[in-house]
Amino acid sequence: MDKFFTAVRLEENLCKGCINCIKRCPTGAIRVRNGKAVITKQFCIDCGECIRICPHHAKLAVYDPLNVMNQYEYTVALPAPSLYGQFNNLDDINIILTALKRMGFDDIYEVSGAAELVSEMSRKYVEEHKSNYPLISTACPSVVRLIRVRFPNLLEHLLPIKAPVDIAAELARKKAMEATGLSADKIGIIFISPCAAKVSAVKEPLGYEKSDVDAVIAIKEIYPKILNYMSQIEKKQDIEDIAISGKIGISWGGTGGEAGGLLTDNYLAADGIENVIRVLEDLEDQKFSSLEFIELNACNGGCVGGVLTVENPFVAKVKLKRLRKYMPVARNHLYKEEILDGFWTKGVQYEPVFNLGLDVKESIGKIAKVEELCEKFPGLDCGSCGAPTCKALAEDVVRGVASEMDCIHIFRQYINECHPDS
Amino acid sequence: MSDQLHLTYNISPDDFTRAGEASSDVKGKLKQMGVSPEAVRKVAIAMYEGEINMVIHANGGTINIIVSPDEVKMILEDEGPGIADIELAMQAGYSTAPDKVRSLGFGAGMGLPNMKKYSDQMKIQTELGVGTTVTMTVKL
């Protein structure tokens, strides 16, 4: 168990030690030390911004290889709704799902199907918990991880319902066990994910002990294979009828889909990690009144913007819109499915990882020192020291992990003082 | 090493794009200091309201923050018009904000009431035509 597990890794020999990732990281989790990027995993929220920005492709996400499916006697693929936005001229989701079966999956359980159940659960929960308004969506693991380290006052607003993928996994395993008579461990529940954060959420879920997902594979890895198998489906009658979801489920793939499923107008939906932070800051200062629900997605456009997708997120959103046009509103309902355990089983604890001192008394001195250093540094935020800003370097110095001389401007001044004639 | 942290912010008048910067900076610092989330919330809201008041009504001013291990003291000083009737100004919903300000979503008449609500102690010294000093304390 590692509560600060992160799915982002550095490919060290590709890293040139430039400042792109340190500048982009929304939590200031990355420093360049000895010419290589180093991630402080307690600060990392798996948003994937560094993977997106790195011009040298030195940042990667860890996920399972496609052949993970060979480890199980029976496998069920859990495609995320964002997968459907990756294909051109698609009119029928069943073509993708049939291709997945031809690839070797024994069965498919659409995450969008479970999403419709989550929408129903959320609708009821939101209605019954007015004192916790606005409730904050917990489907994006990066957002929950961000709140856990930065917004302790907002923890009570988190919607304590499992993410659609985890509900899908539970239902898929149950269905597979009934169909095959196999024991739970012989069945592989494999999520086809748009993002790295889901890898961490499966390994170390927040809000519950264990995820029912056995492995997470990347949309971008499976995409060419799906295309290949799709092109081999020649006749219309070869397409199996596997799809189970309606408009509400498919819409979860993009921002506004989850909130739309609540059937209220009194919501806010924001995406992009910087925008998410701005919304959370304002929410913490009580600048919103009377909102019922806040949907937040770390990626631009929502899940279609995940780092493991291939299509431009906004194009993918258009494609989802086209796909769902003639679908029924919803095809999955709670009265038909028996969800064993849809709610969180434990709260999310505040992790004050950014604290400078052990207590307020000690921190007072440390913040004063940071202020003093900030006055001394040039304020260029040039990143040459390996920290994203002068303030971040000041904090590093106070934490004892960097030195004032790491600032090339201070260093130059020092050299000039040593050799005034040079 | 001193037991107190002093921070000073100059608040520029009529600049709504910058209004809230000072309270947001203080909020960030208090969080990093391990101040309890509840106290951070109180300081952030009380100070934000005060800061906005200075922007709207008082042509800006200066905010001094003193953090000690057992309290946060916020001293908001301006050379604005002063408050004619403190009792009236303290009533929820009472506002003298001009329409221009209200159209931006401010001026709901909750500034002073919220400042009182979220601080443990609040003192107002005001003189018409001279200015106002509001001192708020939040216990840690």
From TrEMBL, chain A:
UniProt domain 4Fe-4S ferredoxin-type: residue ranges: 6-35, 36-65
This protein's record includes keyword 4Fe-4S: yes
Keywords: 4Fe-4S, Iron, Iron-sulfur, Metal-binding
Signal peptide (UniProt feature, chain positions): none
Pfam families in the cross-refs: Fe_hyd_lg_C, Fer4_10, FeS
Domain 4Fe-4S as annotated: residue spans: 365-422
MF-aspect GO terms: 4 iron, 4 sulfur cluster binding; metal ion binding
UniProt name for this protein: Iron only hydrogenase large subunit-like protein
Lineage of producing organism: Bacteria, Bacillati, Bacillota, Clostridia, Lachnospirales
Automatic annotation (TrEMBL), chain B:
Domain of life: Bacteria
SUPFAM superfamilies, A to Z: ATPase domain of HSP90 chaperone/DNA topoisomerase II/histidine kinase (SSF55874)
Sequence ranges assigned to domain Histidine kinase/HSP90-like ATPase in this UniProt record: 53-140
InterPro entries: HATPase_C_sf, HATPase_dom
Protein's recorded name: Anti-sigma regulatory factor (Ser/Thr protein kinase)
Organism expressing this protein natively: Mobilisporobacter senegalensis
